[in-house]
Design brief:
CATH topology: Na+/H+ antiporter like fold
Strand content: under 5%
Number of domains: 1
Shape: globular
CATH class: Mainly Alpha
Order of helices and strands: HHHHHHHHHHHHHHHH
Radius of gyration: 21 Å
Structural class: mainly alpha
Distance between the termini: 72 Å
Largest sheet: none
CATH architecture: Up-down Bundle
Number of helices: 16
Helix content: over 70%
Number of strands: 0
Length: about 425
């Protein structure tokens, strides 16, 4: 009975949270931005988890794992569906390169120090590298959610810097997801083909891509099968996600990465994909909130490394500071070299510090892919980083936009 009550409570939280509209909150923009990405559900998960209230205990969490796998696949699918190659080819060179520069700055600023730190602990070299790459991938993420909400505000809607930041944040998540998918393929030590020990990484990468293409093909076929109504499309889409996401988890590869490949496949197949895109768009928000709740519940400051709670928090705080430095320096570099804008604010990279739910999804996927000496550390550090950056990013974004406005006024008086 307690288990059913816990599941019912979780479902209620997700359903209520999915209907929230932060853009309409009657509070200043800086406060509204705190609730856009849903990171508050991380805190709810921590409160409900076994570390505190224990409503979501280990037994309940184990029962939720299959649904978390589906949620991860849906998040990857939602992002991949936005990547239509014909549209991407029309993007100017700067807007193709700058997102990768921003993502690389966050990844390198965190990944290089993390590599030297993790090497001090006794662990397999392969696992050390994978943990480093996952931390780097999470640091590369920048969520566009806060920026999208500001675009609805008349005060900021016409801002060229805001348009640039939105594009950089959205496209900057692609390198992060790709890096993470490659990391989990590198984690595999057994061959896909029995007895063939050569090119293990390429074997697993090929398998992950193949599963994603098959998943995307199955989804693309759904609208073509007879007169499929919304209900049948929903059931068919969920069934395909359960199957391919579950198969990816069974094989210890990333459902998130497989979903990403599936989304790219659907987006670039000449098929009636709009209904699939609309369905996934409606479901991605509740699934992301669910993943944040689960991540908060399973996250723990107790790690096999015997760091202690303060040690984990100190390491996470250092990684947050390094990431802020990397994003800021990337903004300075791009401001000096770009012709996309006229004299953009040198510190505009700080408008991209919010990591968002995809960073947590990466860390949760890594944890769920199999136990390891660093999995809990990576999840705890990522959760801490997301919570901190979500609190500071609204003020940084508004500061960048105000500096742009002040600079524009200064130009106008000359």
């Amino acid at each position: 009975m307690i288990r059913l009550a816990a599941l019912a409570l979780l479902l209620l939280i997700v359903l209520v949270g999915g209907r929230r509209t932060p853009a309409r909150f009657p509070v200043p923009a800086g406060i509204r931005l705190l609730f856009v990405t849903g990171s508050e559900f991380l805190v709810v998960g921590i409160l409900l988890g076994p570390q505190l209230l224990g409503i979501l205990d280990r037994e309940v969490i184990d029962a939720l794992r299959p649904f978390a796998t589906v949620g991860l696949a849906f998040v990857g699918l939602h992002y991949g569906l936005q990547l239509e190659i014909p549209l991407l080819r029309t993007i100017p060179l700067f807007y193709s390169v700058a997102p990768a520069v921003q993502a690389a700055a966050g990844a390198l600023a965190v990944g290089v120090p993390a590599w030297f730190w993790l090497r001090t602990w006794p662990a397999d070299a392969r696992e050390t590298l994978v943990a480093t790459l996952v931390l780097a991938a999470a640091a590369a993420c920048s969520t566009p959610a806060s920026l999208d909400m500001l675009a609805l505000d008349r005060k900021y809607a016409g801002s060229p810097v805001l348009r640039m930041l939105r594009h950089l944040a959205e496209m900057g998540e692609l390198p992060a997801l790709a890096l993470f998918g490659l990391a989990l393929c590198w984690r595999q030590a057994a061959p896909v083909v029995p007895g063939w020990q050569s090119f293990l990484f390429l074997q697993w990468l090929g398998l992950a891509v193949l599963m994603g293409v098959l998943f995307g093909g199955a989804l693309a076929l759904l609208p073509r099968v007879g007169k499929v109504g919304t209900g049948r499309l929903l059931v068919g889409g969920l069934a395909a996600t359960f199957f391919f996401g579950g198969m990816a988890r069974y094989l210890h590869i990333s459902p998130l990465f497989v979903g990403l490949v599936a989304g790219i496949t659907v987006a670039n197949i000449p098929a009636p994909r709009r209904r699939v895109q609309a369905l996934v768009h409606r479901l991605e928000g509740p699934f992301m909130m669910f993943l944040l709740l689960v991540a908060g519940a399973v996250g723990s400051l107790e790690t096999p490394l015997e760091l202690g709670a303060l040690g984990v928090l100190a390491a996470a705080a250092a990684l947050v500071g390094l990431r802020l430095l990397g994003k800021g320096l990337a903004g300075v570099l791009l401001a000096r070299t770009t012709h996309a804008l006229r004299n953009p604010p040198a510190g505009f990279g700080l408008g991209l510090v919010a990591q968002g739910g995809i960073a947590v999804a990466l860390a949760l996927d890594y944890l769920e892919s199999g136990p390891g000496p660093f999995t809990s550390v990576v999840l705890a550090a990522t959760m801490f980083a997301v919570l901190v950056t979500e609190m500071v990013s609204p003020w940084m974004i508004l500061r960048v936009l105000r500096r742009e406005a002040a600079h524009g006024e200064g130009e106008g008086t000359r």
